[in-house]
Write a structure and sequence with these properties.
Blueprint (H helix, E strand, L loop, with lengths): L3 E4 L3 H13 L3 E7 L6 H5 L2 E6 L10 H11 L3 E3 L9 H9 L3 E2 L4 H8 L1 H10 L15 H12 L3 E9 L2 E6 L5 H16 L4 E5 L5 E9 L5 E13 L2 E7 L8 H17 L4 E9 L6 E7 L6 H8 L3 H9 L16 E8 L1 E2 L5 E2 L2 E2 L3 E2 L6 E5 L6 E2 L6 E9 L2 H14 L1 E2 L6 H7 L3 H5 L4 H5 L1 H6 L3 E4 L10 E9 L2 E9 L21 E5 L9 E3 L4 E6 L6 E2 L4 E7 L2 E6 L4 E5 L7 E2 L4 E6 L3
Parallel strand pairs: 1-2, 1-4, 2-3, 4-5
Antiparallel strand pairs: 6-7, 6-8, 9-10, 9-12, 10-11, 11-14, 12-13, 14-21, 15-16, 17-20, 18-22, 19-21, 23-26, 24-25, 24-26, 27-34, 28-30, 28-33, 29-32, 30-31, 32-34
This protein binds ligand MV4.
Amino acid sequence: MFSKVLVANRGEIAIRVIRALEELGIASVAVYSELDRDALHVQRADEAYLLGGPTAAESYLNVDRILEVIKESGAEAVHPGYGFLAENAAFAKALEDAGVTFIGPPASAIEAMGSKTSAREIMKAAGVPIVPGTTEPVPDVETARKIIDAEIGYPVAVKAAGGGGGKGFRVALTADELQEAFEGASREGEKFFSDPTVYLERYLPNPRHVEVQVLADTHGNVIHLGERDCSIQRRHQKVIEESPAPPWVVDEEMRARIGQIGVDAAKAVDYVGAGTVEGLLSSETGEYFFLEMNTRVQVEHCVTEMTTGVDIVREGIIAAAGGELSLKQEDVELRGHAIECRINAENAAANFAPAPGKIGKYKEPAGPFVRVDSGVGENGEVSPMYDPMVSKLIVWDVDREKATRRMLRALNEYEIEGLTTLIPFHKALLQTEEWAKGDTCHALLEDKEWLKSTAEVVEVVESDEDEAEKITQDYLVEVGGRRFDVKVVGPPPAGGVAIAAGNGAGGAKKPKRERKSGGGGGGGDTLPSPLQGTVFKVNVEAGATVEEGQIIAIIEAMKMENEITAHKAGVVAELPIEPGQSVSAGDTIAVIKNAE
Ligand code: MV4
């Protein structure tokens, strides 16, 4: 076994890995960017090294510097977590060459699965069912047209070969839409993966996203830990995951069938460690098709840990060290139901725009069968530079309905001051009939009115907004001897002194400023940028009349396109932005005045 491992990541997954290392008696080495000097993962590790500047390229993607730190620290292996270098075959190869163990599959498996066309070809040869379509790149629109007419038909999905997770994915419902879909997917492939190659798949109407967790060691043992259902996605980002799938979606027979598909897929690339085979389950025919394999531990691995009792991260480390998996397929037992909610610093009411910021008070839920994997804590900060995830909240209970109630209870306990998060969105979603039915909730996730209705008042910890604002004051009130905690939202009292006794402490508290997480500018005319980035597109002109929720501009940040929508209806009085310009969080995107 290793004695020291470097964790090439940050946030909750770095901490998750460090915990597993400590339990195995392995020393941990953290790495960090200049922005992460005080981050939790740095404090939690046995030693820590600065990688470089704030951008991912200068720090968590800086292979040369990471190789230096490996030498300096004497680490014998590297755990990449997810994201950053986790699926970078060149990085895995560089470590192999340096005699350092990459905790993950061989570089050849990463490479085989990295190209989606190559993965489809290998899976087809291995007898794994793939979504009908091409396994070879399609050179141009004309060729695509011929293949679709002869074999696939419409609607058709055009996907980037370098893609995955929905990047470079376009749909052509009819022949008319093909050219745009083809060019769009190719452009996105070029932008994200430096590879314009695309391929075609039959477009399945309203499928479920069902994936299989696999584990493999170097002794030929390959097992699966059942499925996760991740059908609740927004712009291809998973927001809620569960294990197993709702019982009426996947039964024992289907579980065995798709589990075997996962095992066959892993075997076909000589997989080692923890991996996930993603697939689509046709809601019409019950057919299951391989979509892609993620050659790393995933964000949502925790729900499987809860239902199987297997520590997936630990098994991955043991496998990389040349050990045997601690269990056989027949030892795998699924019990009960687990749900995970991603607690992102995002504003569901504003198109899920990233809402980075400083956290004030912070209190995590606890109690039976509640797990919180978090990357930040009290007085921490969610930086616009990285993924906006604050934490993952995972609960377990004997069945889906009870797990849902437990999740709602845990969400109610969660207190994150100063940050707009998906907590109110999750609370609302888990109380819908759609969730109860096990629906994929696509319509809800696009329903602007419904999303708006989930917004909650949040207390701003630190704000330089200067307009007159309402404040929130907490009072303790006793009515007929019964105690009530009362929140009063309104203008600050004359004289500006507020006495709060909310938590029984009795002392005077500074009045807190609040903002409705749904909009910007506290009801003013100014639409501020919720994030730092580059103006990609301006969708309206100055003087235009806009509806509330209409897209004003698209801001690109971390390669993601974020739609900035009008916070109110009116006339665009000012529009001080143009494509290519960089904006900071809080900068004015537009001033929208009421139409007279
Ligand atoms: C598809 C599809 C329909 N047909 N492929 C790809 C990435 C993943 N995030 C979702 N992807 C899809 N690929 C074909 N051939 C539909 C989706 C899809 C989806 C699938 C299951 C559950 C939710 C989804 C949300 C958006 C897109």
